[in-house]
């Protein structure tokens, strides 16, 4: 049976449409949700479970199946269908997204991607042709072209370059296809720019692809941005071929995209969140690990007829999850798939009845507020905490004691809880180096922990230090003092300090500020030169200011960091600099053996670093903090890398993710080379 798509009736009030996908392994009624079987299994479920939930088509992943068991095993077993015991249609992703999100030490060129296997550390190549070769061995009904995936919020020039390479790779994928019974879908890219999305759709639809996907979303964008781009892109795609929204994922996201005319969906959310104790219901999410459900006799969802809801109370599911019994997430995953696939059945019925608009409104109205928050926050994320009152110290119960009168200026010098002087930002309400003071923390947490002295004693070109969060200059000056004292014959030091507000440095370099902070004369002259001209030079030391918003400055920075002191305000007040996007941007500006040190040990910070491609470890204590955080591009460069138990703790945590974490963040974390090897 050849591949075909037959469009059906459309809803009058929206662009929602019915259709039928015909494949060699059966028919798929659309709109349809495909459970994700990344490694030839929908996690924790048998093919019979998946079929009983109502699924007709599932997804497998080329990247993971290439690494293990490999295409030779697929040929031996006669393809993925026979290997995993699934007789329905299968769509295989090309591996492009995983190359972007999971592979450490990767290189992307026009030829393809070269990366290190997380299974056995071998160097492997994945080109458009190799991706099609592997997908042919898998025997999937629908193959995807290899694409270049970037965060949707990446700079316009980078998005355009990735889009154009995706187009060239799509044509190479088309030329590499040898089995016409396997359909091939192209992927529309272009970030959040409607003009780029339009250009991508125009180019790809002029070639004989069997269907079209909308890619590059749910990687930094908000729900409102996704909705707009999906609607814009879907309208540009031909009516007679299927439209597939890749990896987007919550029930509201899917239902809103159905209204825009999208036919196919996949996401790891229903199974991954089951392992965290979260169920999707007709009235919103239920977190069964909460103590309020310990004695609950209620089913997960009175409107659901799945085996979990028919047989088990919330109290029993709470017990299983608390005991870490594997049956708990399995039962939740069964329910979640029934819920997702039931939504698809309801959507198809509503389209046929010409009332999809009413169905959409009623369904969204019944879901908890956090599922479709008008503020644009990612689903399940908490609202930012209110700022503390000016003078309150971050990480301390004791307020700062101001040196000057309150309200006189934004920055003031205060005494920390240890009696050391430090700089307070009244507007933000945070003290820089709030407990042990600037000089001590700069030396202890940054200079000593990074082994800066030993690094400078090595032979080689000048060591490049990114000082993110210049503040009053204490970290940069501690590094410069270390370089001055280094023995001759070693490396020089280039410090690039990133800062948008120089008020703290101006206070610290004033006569009164320098006296209060005890700044040495040589340090004072260096800081004043930086403040006056943006540069300071001395023997073996260069110090340069990158003024303005740190992310923009990082993107424009030509130097590559060997060492990073990450010391901006806390995530509470400067969340953009503790995001996946921020650390992903930083990673592109790092040298091969770069290392990062920061005062925060927050789970959200560590998961953001991991999702950005860093390896992450436990850093040295600082003041009352038992530990801080270290990160590097290679786990070999960490003294105490996080172990697999960290992922288990994240899975149990109620709020472990930065605001821009992707919806399959836990799956990415589990597959991170640091934990997968």
Automatic annotation (TrEMBL):
RNA binding: region residues: 247-253
Which prosthetic group or cofactor does it need?
A: Zn(2+)
For this protein, what does the record note about how its cofactor is bound?
Answer: Binds 1 zinc ion per subunit.
Where does this protein hold Zn(2+)? 304, 306, 309, 335
| Residues reported in the UniProt entry to bind substrate | 93-97, 147, 189, 216
* Alphabetized GO MF terms: metal ion binding; oxidoreductase activity, acting on the CH-NH group of donors; tRNA-guanosine(34) queuine transglycosylase activity
Q: EC number(s) for this protein?
A: 2.4.2.29
Record domain MnmC-like methyltransferase: where: 537-632
Please give the catalytic activity noted in the UniProt record.
7-aminomethyl-7-carbaguanine + guanosine(34) in tRNA = 7-aminomethyl-7-carbaguanosine(34) in tRNA + guanine
Enzyme class comes to transferase
Q: In which pathway does it act?
A: tRNA modification; tRNA-queuosine biosynthesis
| Similarity comment | Belongs to the queuine tRNA-ribosyltransferase family.
Say what the protein does.
Answer: Catalyzes the base-exchange of a guanine (G) residue with the queuine precursor 7-aminomethyl-7-deazaguanine (PreQ1) at position 34 (anticodon wobble position) in tRNAs with GU(N) anticodons (tRNA-Asp, -Asn, -His and -Tyr). Catalysis occurs through a double-displacement mechanism. The nucleophile active site attacks the C1' of nucleotide 34 to detach the guanine base from the RNA, forming a covalent enzyme-RNA intermediate. The proton acceptor active site deprotonates the incoming PreQ1, allowing a nucleophilic attack on the C1' of the ribose to form the product.
Question: What is the name listed in the Swiss-Prot or TrEMBL entry for this protein?
Answer: Queuine tRNA-ribosyltransferase
Q: Which organism is it from?
A: Anaeromyxobacter diazotrophicus
